[in-house]
Write a structure and sequence with these properties.
Length: 109
Amino acid sequence: MDLRAFYQKIRQLETEIPGSHAVVVSNETPDGGRAGRISEVPKALAARMIVEGKARLATAEESTRHHAGLERAVEDARRAVLLGRASERLLSDADVEALRVALKPGKGS
């Protein structure tokens, strides 16, 4: 393998990838790589993975679906946090008073 040509291909491909990150789809590899895994990686890593045959650039549709999935996951996480906070605050005044009475030490203690 000509290392000079290998790294030249990586640098060339890196300049062709727009932005600072790229969405890639993994290829099946003999060392256990699974096909179809979508990831967003820095474009230098994307270029290297493509040249090594471990991945390909995602299509516009795949990239859009990936970003939409990430947005849904973030929104679901925010919603779960907000629901957790809301459930922590659902004590009525009567519940608070009952807790005070239960936790109040007796006169003989």
